[in-house]
Amino acid sequence: xxxxxxxxxxxxxxxxxxxxxxxxxxxxxxxxxxxxxxxxxxxxxxxxxxxxxxxxxxxxxxxxxxxxxxxxxxxxxxxxxxxxxxxxxxxxxxxxxxxxxxxxxxxxxxxxxxxxxxxxxxxxxxxxxxxxxxxxxxxxxxxxxxxxxxxxxxxxxxxxxxxxxxxxxxxxxxxxxxxxxxxxxxxxxxxxxxxxxxxxxxxxxxxxxxxxxxxxxxxxxxxxxxxxxxxxxxxxxxxxxxxxxxxxxxxxxxxxxxxxxxxxxxxxxxxxxxxxxxxxxxxxxxxxxxxxxxxxxxxxxxxxxxxxxxxxxxxxxxxxxxxxxxxxxxxxxxxxxxxxxxxxxxxxxxxxxxxxxxxxxxxxxxxxxxxxxxxxxxxxxxxxxxxxxxxxxxxxxxxxxxxxxxxxxxxxxx
Amino acid sequence: xxxxxxxxxxxxxxxxxxxxxxxxxxxxxxxxxxxxxxxxxxxxxxxxxxxxxxxxxxxxxxxxxxxxxxxxxxxxxxxxxxxxxxxxxxxxxxxxxxxxxxxxxxxxxxxxxxxxxxxxxxxxxxxxxxxxxxxxxxxxxxxxxxxxxxxxxxxxxxxxxxxxxxxxxxxxxxxxxxxxxxxxxxxxxxxxxxxxxxxxxxxxxxxxxxxxxxxxxxxxxxxxxxxxxxxxxxxxxxxxxxxxxxxxxxxxxxxxxxxxxxxxxxxxxxxxxxxxxxxxxxxxxxxxxxxxxxxxxxxxxxxxxxxxxxxxxxxxxxxxxxxxxxxxxxxxxxxxxxxxxxxxxxxxxxxxxxxxxxxxxxxxxxxxxxxxxxxxxxxxxxxxxxxxxxxxxxxxxxxxxxxxxxxxxxxxxx
Lengths: 414, 414
Description:
- By secondary structure, chain A is of the alpha/beta class.
- In chain A, 42% of the residues lie in helices and 25% in strands.
- Chain A has helices at residues 10-13, 20-31, 46-59, 77-84, 93-105, 153-172, 188-201, 227-245, 257-267, 282-287, 306-313, 317-323, 328-342, 389-409; strands spanning 2-8, 35-42, 62-66, 89-91, 119-121, 125-127, 136-141, 144-149, 175-183, 206-212, 215-224, 249-251, 272-276, 297-303, 346-352, 367-374, 377-384.
- The mean pLDDT of chain A is 93.
- At the A-B interface, helix 2, strand 2, helix 10, strand 14 and helix 11 of A face helix 2, strand 2, helix 10, strand 14 and helix 11 of B.
- Strand 14 (297-303) of chain A pairs antiparallel with strand 14 (297-303) of chain B.
């Protein structure tokens, strides 16, 4: 089965937004085993859209369009496709009612132009839009299918997930089940090397590694006809990957590292405090990104200057001058000061050189010491991170979280 | 003049990456006054690529391809285009030498397959690639032009900027000069309303507003034949926008709010301290993102729990229980405590409800108090931010920076 994706919108051709919808849909179609041979973007122009649609229908089984379902005159996807496929547009009273309610809930009145959105091609399947006013629709014509979705990803994605994915699954007779293994402490190329034989020999499940912002993810996806079958296919592969990577695998369901640490802290009745130098508050910011983090986090210190390390965390001037602010000794004194000051059951201290300036041959940019305690266990680790300032700071936050995770799990070293 | 962008690569059709190249190129082409009517993505398939190229050459003056210039058999853009346009591929000894040097510099030997990259269509203009092994090229054929660029943005963008942009500028005879006005304290729709008459009546310079992550940007772009002419066109429009928006415009050259505040602090010999509750360290993290921030920032406190507000910043239990942690009174006591503790010449305190939980009818999610001082001037502001937790925290950081900026500039209210 082949598909192509046809995005409609002059804003795409002006570069005001990237065509992320095509990427999103392509990933999901690939998982369904549907081949995508073309992406096309056209502007809000009926002639070019009609011509492109005809060509797409000639060469592909399924055409998915995004965009052009809005209320204005520029929005002409539905009108052009209906005309091309010789279908009337008919008013759906229930959709009109939904649109009116959508505005009423937001204490606004529906503008007359929005009525246009309640018209759909005759004999089409409605795709409800819980997050906006434009419903989508599916037209079947012989062995060809046209699926129309709106442009905003926040509307398009839920509609695809809630209606279209199942529709296509029924068409292909396939279900897909994935595990998202998230991994820290190993680069993407090293990971690929360790899993190469599995990646190359596996066809079902497939194993797809990818890296983003210092974290590596491996998606293991089984294609089959039932959930039981999928689980049976996935389990041995996940076990094999876990046995090769050990403690480096921190979640199986795509959870972020801060979520994993938040849950571990909560389950163990721990409260964590932070002391940050080079990360400048980013670690605390990351922990408090999680709703409910006040259960496990009470306070943090950003001790950027030596004076602050001394006054707020009792790091001695002697240590600072003898070993320097970026040293194991300073990290451990920051940690001790933090424990004394807060009485928290867990703590983490970070000091390092984020760059671009400040590096020396002995202490290069990227050198970071991370010290952590959980009750009476203490661990201090030394890292040399690569990359720019942002990357070093991000990696330092991730490994600070990971150090706490290792302490709680009682696995202090790999 | 019309152009279309043709991206080649199966990884795009699998959704492994988004077609950000098309977006990038579209923005630059729009600035040159070149109309883009189509983006197309095809896989690594000679038949589909050849057919798509022919169609593109039929309907557009310029076709820009990205991708498919690598050394492997899958990379067939150059080969397919040369065949379609009846050109021989000829070996360029100097390019081969460059490729060998590229590897030598990295202490590696050139693989035999890379030799393929030194072949280019006869009578084409070479586009040097300082960041990789694949050069690009330009083929002119009558009034049609094909421009081939590699896929990786880190190679493609410099090649476009250093060679192709000027080539196209000579073709169109146009230069473009932009000012990026960055604005805080007004939403995009309100901004558009205030500038509507300018946006609609202006053709040169053009005025393009857009919004991202709580900040609004207006790009004013003049098209003309000299820099002097451009400046003369831009100045009155920028002045008019500034006169309508006043203090809300914080930069003209695209600088971020933290950079603007960092420069203001530095110029005025100020050092700032932070006290954060709902933003949990993100404000300090943002300030310390700037290399050299240690000149203006020594320390910050993340006082997430009431106990921390009391112990670290001397907020009284009476205030906390009488007015609540999210109140003007608590914000001001946090600020006073911060000043006493640090002796810093500037400070900012934030307390609010980031959500999703914790809101009440009197104190809804999104309610944030921001207090700041600069020397002896103090300002406390109340905000009700919209959106999810991330958005509220981000907006709180931005307005905390803006409050400091207003104090330093001596413009406490709009």
